[in-house]
Design goal:
The protein has a domain of about 325 residues: Rossmann fold (3-Layer(aba) Sandwich). The protein is about 20% helix and about 35% strand. The chain has 12 helices and 39 strands. The strands form 8 sheets. Strands 32-33-35-34-36-37-38-39 form an 8-stranded mixed beta sheet, with helices on both faces. The protein has a 7-stranded antiparallel beta sheet with strand order 8-9-10-11-12-13-14. Strand 11 and strand 12 form a beta hairpin. The relative contact order is 0.11.
C-alpha cells in the first residue's frame, strides 16, 4: 500500500446528549446540517482524499469495469410478458444507461444465441425510454410504471436526485401524447380503477413515511385530488395496489410487526374502502383475490404463518378457513392468486420454495405440489405474472453459479420451460465454479448457515482471500444470487460467502426475532462466528478476509468493527446505519418511529437505550487499530442519512490507531441506492472490488 496523503480532519463542535441520566458529548453532530457550508466542504474533502488514496488502484478499477462490461450483453431483451393482448418487455442498448419499455401485439423473438441481433417486431410501440427521460441528469430513477386496464394510458413517475419523491405523469399510449396531469411529491405504488379514469397513489410525511393514499381523477388538477386514507399511527406505512384480478384496489397498512388491509371494488372509485380484518398488535396478514374469495396469509397463532380462505363479502377472521395450516419451520411468505390456481411462496430448511394449488370454482380442488429444482443452494421466486386467467406461471431462478433465469411452469402438466438465462459473455465457463453450504456455530450453540462460491481450482488451504457478505435485519433473507461482477473476484482466487445471520428470515420467523430488539447483538456475533468458521475450516485466513454489508447490513459491519480486532482485514459498509442510537432517539428523523419495533424505543426505555448504546458503531469507536474500512454515502439518501457514515469515519480518524486506510466516498447527487445508470453502477462496483482486492491481496 503506498503512503497516503494526509486525510481531512473534521472539526469538533461539542454537542451534549442527555438521555436517561446518561450524558454523551457528540463532536460531529454538526454534520447533520447539510446546509452548513462546512458539511459539504468536509464531504468533498473526503471524496478528494479517497480519490487520492485509491489512485494506485485506477488501473485495477478500469480492468474490473472492462471485465464486467465485456461479460454483459449490453444490447438485450427481457422475456416478454403477456397481458390483455399485448406483449410487454424492455430493451437495453449498448452505450445506454437505462432500459426502454416497449410492447407489441406480436411476441418478440428471443435470440437463441447472444451473438444474434435482436429484431424488434414491426408493430413495436415504445412506451417509455428512460434514457430520454434522464437526459443529462447525473441521477434518474423511475418509480411507478402502471398501464391502465384498457391498455390506453400509462402512469409513470420520475426522481432526479435520489430523494425518492417522484413526480407522477400520464401518457396517452394511443397517440403518444403527454397528458397535462402532473402530481409532484408522490411515492411508490399506484392502482387504476376499472374505468381507467382514476388512479390511486401515495405521498409521504416529513419523516419520509408513506401515510396518505390519494385519488386522482384524470383531466383534473392535482390540487383537486382527494385523500382516501390517512394513516395517523406513525409506526405504519401505507401502500396501494391493484389485485391481479383487477377487481379490487388494496390499501396495505403495516408496521414492522402489525398489518391491516382495506379493499375497494375497482369499479367504484368514489366508494368507501372496507377493512378485511381490523389490526391487532403483532398480527400480520396479506391478501390476494380470486373469484368470490380472498386468500390470506397470516400469523395469528401461527408463528411461521399459514394460508386461509375467506368470502370476499365477509373476509373477517371469524370466516377464515385453513388451506395450508401452520407448520412450524415452514415459513409461508405469500400467495399469488389466479383464476384457476394459487402459487404459495414459502421457506423450508433455509431454502425458498414454490407450492402450486389447483382451484375449481375458487376453492382448492386437489393436493398441491412443489415446483422441484435440482440445486440445493439456490433462490426461486415468482416472476412477472400480470395475467389473471392463465395456465402458465412465470418464475425467476438463480444460484451462486447459475445466472438469473426465467422459467415458465405449466400448471397442468408440471413441466418447466427455460425461457431465458442471463448471458455471460467473454468465454466464461460457468462449470468452473462451485457452490456449497456450510454451517458455523455461534457462541450460544446456534448453527448459522453460510453459502459459498469459488472456482473449483481455488485451494481450500487457508491461502485464498474471501469476502463475507451479511445483512440480518427486517426478516430480509440474503438468498443466493448470481453476479457477473463477482466473477472478477472469483477469477482472482477469491471465495465469496453469504452469512445467513439471525435478524434475517432465512430460517423462519424465529430466526428474525432472535436478531432484533434486545437480541440484536446475535446478528453481529453470528457474523463474527461465520468469519471465524471460514478461517478454521480452511477457506481463508484472517489477513485476507473482508466483510461487506449495506444499510442495516452496514450497521452489522460497523458493529463488527468494534466487536473484534482480528477476524477481518477489511470492512466495507455501504450507506451504513452506523449512528443508529442517535437516529432512533430522534423522532423527527426519517423513518425513526416506524423503526422502533425493529430496534426498540430508546426514548422511553432506559434498557433499550443502554442496549443500543452498547453496539451502535459510532458510539463505540475505540483507540485501537481497525481493519481497512471503506464507507459510502449518498447526500440525498432519505433512508440512511449521509451524516451517519460521515460521523463514523470522522470519529474513526480522530480515535483509531494503526495505518490501515479509512475511506469515505459520498455520492453528491444520489440517494440510498448509489449511482442510477448501469455503467455508473459498474464503475462504482469496480471501485469497491478494487479496494477489497488492494487490502486483502492474495499471497504470492
Amino acid at each position: 500500500m503506498p503512503e497516503l496523503p494526509a486525510p481531512p480532519v473534521a472539526k469538533k463542535v461539542p454537542a451534549e446528549r442527555t438521555v436517561h441520566g446518561d450524558t454523551v458529548v457528540d463532536h460531529y453532530a454538526w454534520l447533520k446540517d447539510r446546509d452548513d457550508p462546512d458539511t459539504v466542504a468536509y464531504l468533498e474533502a473526503e471524496n478528494a482524499y479517497t480519490e487520492a488514496a485509491s489512485a494506485h488502484t485506477k488501473a485495477l478499477q478500469a480492468e474490473i469495469f472492462d471485465e464486467i462490461k465485456s461479460r454483459t450483453l449490453e444490447t438485450d431483451l427481457s422475456v416478454p410478458v403477456r397481458h390483455h393482448g399485448w406483449w410487454y418487455y424492455t430493451r437495453t442498448l449498448e452505450g445506454s444507461q437505462y432500459p426502454i419499455h416497449c410492447r407489441s401485439r406480436t411476441e418478440p423473438a428471443l435470440p437463441a444465441d447472444p451473438a444474434e441481433d435482436i429484431v424488434s417486431p414491426a408493430d413495436e410501440q415504445v412506451l417509455l425510454d428512460q434514457n430520454e427521460l434522464a437526459g443529462d441528469s447525473p441521477y434518474f430513477a423511475l418509480g411507478t410504471f402502471d398501464v391502465s386496464p384498457d391498455g390506453r394510458l400509462l402512469a409513470y413517475s420520475t426522481d432526479y436526485d435520489g430523494g425518492e419523491k417522484y413526480t407522477l405523469r400520464f401518457k396517452d399510449l394511443e397517440t403518444g401524447a403527454a397528458l397535462p396531469d402532473e402530481v409532484p411529491g408522490t411515492y411508490y405504488g399506484s392502482a387504476w380503477t376499472t374505468d381507467n379514469g382514476a388512479l390511486f397513489y401515495t405521498t409521504v410525511d416529513a419523516a419520509m413515511r408513506p401515510y396518505r393514499v390519494w385519488r386522482h381523477l384524470l383531466g383534473t388538477e392535482a390540487a383537486a385530488d382527494v385523500v382516501v386514507h390517512e394513516e395517523t399511527d406513525e409506526r405504519f406505512f401505507a401502500g396501494v395496489g391493484l389485485t391481479r384480478s383487477e377487481q379490487y384496489v388494496v390499501i396495505e397498512l403495516g408496521s414492522q410487526i402489525t398489518s391491516e388491509t382495506w379493499v375497494l371494488p375497482a369499479g367504484d372509485p368514489h366508494g368507501e374502502f372496507r377493512v378485511v380484518q381490523p389490526r391487532e398488535q403483532g398480527v400480520e396478514y396479506s391478501v390476494d383475490h380470486t373469484g368470490d374469495h380472498f386468500y390470506i396469509v397470516h400469523n395469528s397463532d401461527a408463528v411461521d404463518f399459514e394460508l386461509v380462505v375467506a368470502p370476499a363479502g365477509s373476509p373477517g377472521r371469524e370466516n377464515w378457513r385453513p388451506v395450508l395450516p401452520h407448520e412450524l419451520g415452514v415459513r409461508v411468505t405469500g400467495v399469488d392468486a389466479f383464476a384457476g390456481h394459487l402459487v404459495v411462496s414459502m421457506r423450508r430448511d433455509g431454502r425458498t420454495e414454490l407450492h402450486v394449488l389447483p382451484l375449481a370454482d375458487g376453492a382448492v380442488a386437489a393436493p398441491g405440489r412443489d415446483i422441484e429444482f435440482a440445486e440445493p443452494v439456490r433462490t426461486v421466486r415468482p416472476g412477472s405474472n400480470p395475467e389473471f386467467d392463465t395456465t402458465v406461471f412465470r418464475l425467476g431462478y438463480a444460484s451462486l453459479t447459475t445466472p438469473g433465469s426465467v422459467y415458465d411452469y405449466d400448471i397442468a402438466g408440471g413441466e418447466l420451460t427455460l425461457r431465458k438465462r442471463q448471458p455471460v459473455l467473454g468465454g466464461v465457463d460457468l462449470d468452473a465454479y462451485e457452490s456449497v453450504r456450510e454451517w458455523a456455530t455461534a457462541a450460544d450453540g446456534t448453527r448459522i448457515p453460510i453459502s459459498l462460491v469459488k472456482r473449483r481450482d481455488t485451494p481450500r488451504d487457508g491461502s485464498a482471500p474471501c469476502v463475507l457478505y451479511g445483512y440480518g435485519a427486517y426478516e430480509a433473507s440474503m438468498d443466493p444470487w448470481f453476479s457477473i461482477a463477482r466473477l472478477s473476484l472469483l477469477d482472482r482466487g477469491y471465495v465469496f460467502a453469504i452469512a445467513h445471520v439471525r435478524g434475517g428470515g432465512e430460517l423462519g420467523r424465529r430466526w428474525y426475532e432472535d436478531g432484533k430488539l434486545l437480541r440484536k447483538r446475535n446478528t453481529f456475533t453470528d457474523f463474527v462466528a461465520c468469519g471465524e468458521h471460514l478461517v478454521s475450516a480452511g477457506w481463508t485466513a484472517h489477513d485476507q478476509l473482508a466483510g461487506r454489508g449495506g444499510s442495516a447490513g452496514g450497521l452489522l459491519i460497523g458493529a463488527v468493527a468494534n466487536l473484534t480486532e482480528s477476524t477481518f482485514a477489511t470492512l466495507v459498509g455501504e450507506v451504513p446505519f452506523v449512528d443508529a442510537l442517535n437516529t432512533i432517539l430522534d423522532p423527527t428523523m426519517p423513518l425513526t418511529v416506524v423503526e422502533w419495533e425493529e430496534w426498540g424505543n430508546p426514548v422511553d426505555s432506559a434498557e433499550v437505550y443502554a442496549y443500543m448504546k452498547s453496539y451502535s458503531p459510532t458510539e463505540n469507536v475505540e483507540a485501537r487499530a481497525y481493519p481497512a474500512i471503506l464507507a459510502t454515502a449518498g447526500l440525498n439518501d432519505p433512508r440512511v442519512g449521509y451524516h451517519e457514515p460521515a460521523k463514523w469515519v470522522a470519529r474513526l480518524r480522530a480515535t483509531a490507531t494503526g495505518d490501515r486506510p479509512l475511506l469515505l466516498k459520498t455520492e453528491m447527487g444520489a440517494g440510498h441506492g448509489g449511482p442510477s445508470g448501469r455503467y455508473d453502477a459498474w464503475r462504482d462496483e469496480a471501485f469497491t472490488l478494487a479496494f477489497i482486492i488492494d487490502t486483502t491481496a492474495p499471497r504470492s
